[in-house]
From TrEMBL:
This is DUF2313 domain-containing protein. The lineage of its organism: Bacteria, Pseudomonadati, Pseudomonadota, Alphaproteobacteria, Acetobacterales. It comes from Neoroseomonas eburnea. It comes from the Bacteria. InterPro entries: Phage_Mu_Gp48.
Length: 234
């Protein structure tokens, strides 16, 4: 039922007309953030020294050598800090990826477990999608969401019976039906009962729900009720 990555990029990019999709990559501005060179840091440290004959600015002094050692450590720190800037995007993160996963916590539907076997790239994709995912209230969004999980669905919205609009043969749906929408999915796996294992009162079979069902329930508008209908096995 499910193919490919459980965190494909498609649901993130899908948006109603007029809403721009998320950028493909984060472009960090260039400028004063760049790490300074060792010589530049040493020169600044020398400039910060007090005035007077004891505080020579000559580079061949013991004091200048001491400040050179300090400048090398400061330069190493600035290079490390600069290298961390792209890490704010989990799609390319490495050192901060575990922090993203810790803050996000386990995925309610277990999609992180599905992708964890795929390696680093799938972990990055999972963290990015969960961090940036925006929910929309259109059938197209949920259809795209299921498509990213490798499942083709259709969505039908119910309409309550309205006097003057209702025609002969139409279903007499109550007003609360306006908040119900039906998600039709392909057939799914059914656990058949086993002779000698089935107990009195047990179910004569068990339907294994699709991962799509959990995902849609998590993202459905709070005032609505999604109902899931699986196709019968052929």
């Amino acid at each position: 039922m499910i193919s490919g990555s459980a965190f494909a990029e498609l649901p993130v990019a899908v948006a109603p007309d007029g809403i721009p999709p998320l950028p493909a990559v984060i472009v960090l501005p260039e400028g004063p953030r760049a790490a300074r060179s060792v010589s530049a840091i040493q020169a600044e440290l020398l400039d910060l020294l007090p005035t007077g004959w004891a505080w020579s600015r000559d580079l061949d002094t013991t004091l200048a050598s001491l400040l050179l050692a300090l400048a090398q450590e400061i330069e190493r720190f600035e290079v490390s800090a600069e290298a961390m800037l792209p890490q704010v995007d989990p799609r390319v993160g490495l050192e901060l990826l575990e922090d993203f996963e810790r803050v996000l916590g386990p995925d309610p539907c277990g999609r992180d477990l599905v992708d964890s076997a795929g390696g680093l790239d799938d972990r990055r994709r999972a963290a990015h999608v969960r961090w940036t995912q925006q929910g929309y209230q259109t059938p197209a969004y949920y259809i795209a969401l299921a498509g990213a999980l490798g499942v083709e669905i259709t969505i039908a919205e119910t309409t309550p019976a309205v006097l003057g609009v209702l025609e002969c043969g139409m279903e007499l749906a109550p007003a609360a039906e306006r908040f119900v929408w039906v998600v039709s999915l392909p057939e799914t796996r059914v656990i058949e009962p086993e002779l000698g294992v089935l107990e009195c009162g047990g179910f004569l079979g068990e339907l294994v729900p699709s991962l799509v069902e959990c995902v849609i329930r998590q993202l459905a508008p709070a005032h609505t009720t999604p109902v899931f209908s699986y196709a019968e096995a052929s």
